[in-house]
Amino acid sequence: MPKILAIDDDRTVLRLIEKAFEDADVNLTTVSTAEEGLSILLEGDIDVCLLDIMLPEMNGLELAKKIRAIDARMPVIFITSMDDSDTAIEAMKLGAYEFCTKPLDITQVQDFVERAFNTRRLMRAPVTIQESSEISVGEGDQLVGKSPQMVEVYKQIGRVAAQMVPVLIRGESGTGKELIARAIYQHSQRNEECYLAVNCAALSETLLESELFGHEKGAFTGAERRHVGKFEQCNNGSIFLDEIGDMSPLLQSKVLRLLQEQKFERVGGTKTIETDARIISATNRDLEAMIQENEFRLDLYHRINAFEIHLPPLRERGEDIDLLIGFFIRRLSKQLGKNVEGISPDAMELLRGYQWPGNVRELQGVIRHALLMATGPVIVPENLRGELQRGSDSTAASVSFTPAASEKSDGVEDFVQARIDEGSSEIYAETLEMMERKLITKILSETSGNQSQAAEMLGITRGSLRNKIRSLGIVIEQVVSVD
């Protein structure tokens, strides 16, 4: 159970925090003095700290320094009045995670704490390598596989983790690029410092710029206070830029300058800020083709690609599929409270023959679905999704993670509900991918597969369309034949 420590000398604030988490599955401890808080931090395994910046016996900055000395990776969320935000900013430079202003907004506090829990998990949950057929299902995330391709990936992690150079991780969607990034971080010399991840494809250009570089109060509509960006928070730590190929040209130039000079300005600001954050980036796009189409900067490509790791797709990993199936059955059975011990030979044969356009993420979803459908101790073909039961002949142009019900409907609601029912933690990305695949398939059908016409109708370059066709697993011949 996640543990929260709240330190504030105002009992009203502490009662509001207690109310915010009274129905949450967390362990909350509240104290009114810095001395009590430090004692608990030294004794217990606290995940997130809510800290008043104006304590009577100790300044919040002093306490933040002590907390950082105890655990530099602990997210600290400051509680502050509106007129001392500059002090809170200084505290965030010491490694604080966020700050919320009085009077407290309960929803905002809950949101900050939830995100802080996830950040804490990313920094603490070990990413272990499992090459044996007897794979344990302990705590933390695991890189499962012993194929020659994955063994080479493990070697590359070992070669580059301790070197303070930018790393570019490449591979199809769902191959596990985020796990590789965390493994690099955990085996680096900065594994006691901050680690933050940003999905460059999930935010608009304005929001992503603010998320990375921060902004000053009044920099744009809705900027009601100064915001510290991830690069500033990750000073001396590591930042993971997922889907960097989706970054706009403006942000590409700002990231290039940061890599060259280790300096930047907040949005709407003039003060130059220095940072020493190690950048680990990932993409499933063809950056070389994007460079030819002037969609990605060649100089930035060389900067982020000091060392490249390529993750193979699941269909090329041979017997790793068997290892992953066994691993997911054991781990997910435990999580779902199901007494499933194995899989029948005919069901295993269907899984082995499938092409897995969604890679490891799709396999995990398929096994979760099968476990939910299973009524006995063994997974049988009837427990698998419709596309698995029909075979893999027509899967390349389909939405790999879409259940049969959503194949019969163009509605987004059915798809989202199906992902909710299966307990997905990637609903945003999966829904965007589903909608993008449907849109591009429809336009290609309308143009009889003519990519130049399709790109013009979509308002994107032909190179960008080509990258999307490849990454989404769309087969032109199948699109045209269906039409």
Name some characteristics of this structure.
alpha/beta; five-stranded parallel β-sheet; 483 residues
Question: Overview of this structure, please?
Answer:
- The chain is an alpha/beta fold.
- It has helices at 11-20, 34-43, 60-70, 85-93, 106-124, 148-160, 177-186, 205-213, 230-233, 249-261, 287-292, 298-304, 320-336, 345-353, 359-373, 386-390, 404-407, 412-421, 427-446, 451-458, 462-472, 476-482; strands at 3-7, 27-31, 48-52, 76-80, 98-101, 127-130, 141-144, 167-170, 195-199, 238-242, 263-265, 272-274, 278-283, 307-310, 342-343, 378-379.
- Strands 2-1-3-4-5 form a 5-stranded parallel β-sheet, sandwiched between helices. The protein has a 5-stranded parallel β-sheet with strand order 9-10-13-8-14. It has a two-stranded parallel ribbon with strand order 6-7.
- Strand 4, helix 4 and strand 5 (98-101) form a beta-alpha-beta unit.
- Mean pLDDT is 83; it is low at 392-409.
